[in-house]
């Protein structure tokens, strides 16, 4: 074992064993789970929804590495293996992504069914990578060696986002943060007069 925690088979299989990639949507994982990552929330007893999802994602990625041919250790995992994993997950996608030859290319709500493939939505993949990136570092991985933060992974996610935006006619513009109501009111109030007027 290296400086960070490798995946270890657990004595008890995770019956859910799934990666939830979209709100409410899951992809089946027919493999037993790996050991849970040691995170700060683990010691408190109950984990948040995010922590539970991160643990399931980490276990599923570990299982993917073990079932890889040839099997891979986490220490030998690279950005290319992460991309391979993301492409593997596409088979469980629920988002219709129109091809350029499809008459509904660029239409967000097509009027009829088409044979275009179902893929993982960009937002789901982006969130998954964020959770796996955090889990890697929580398990002792060094940030500079994090395969989930590799340039190739970032470029792939950007390419998926852009291609899905064109194919589905949906823009993925970053939403501007709304300021809390109290701050907006304070900005419109006149400043009190200063006391040191000469």
TrEMBL record:
Any single Pfam family the record assigns to this protein: ALOG_dom
Q: Identify a single GO molecular function assigned to this protein.
A: DNA binding
The record, for InterPro entries, names:
ALOG, ALOG_dom
**Keyword Amino-acid biosynthesis, does the record have it?**
no
Annotated spans, Disordered: 1-52, 163-198
Where in the cell does this protein reside?
Answer: Nucleus
Q: What is its main location?
A: nucleus
| Bias-annotated ranges (Low complexity) | 32-44
Write down any Gene Ontology CC term: nucleus
Location of the ALOG domain: 49-176
Keywords per UniProt = Developmental protein, DNA-binding, Nucleus, Transcription, Transcription regulation
**Homology family:** Belongs to the plant homeotic and developmental regulators ALOG protein family.
Q: Which PANTHER family match?
A: PROTEIN G1-LIKE2 (PTHR31165), PROTEIN LIGHT-DEPENDENT SHORT HYPOCOTYLS 4 (PTHR31165:SF115)
The protein in question is named ALOG domain-containing protein
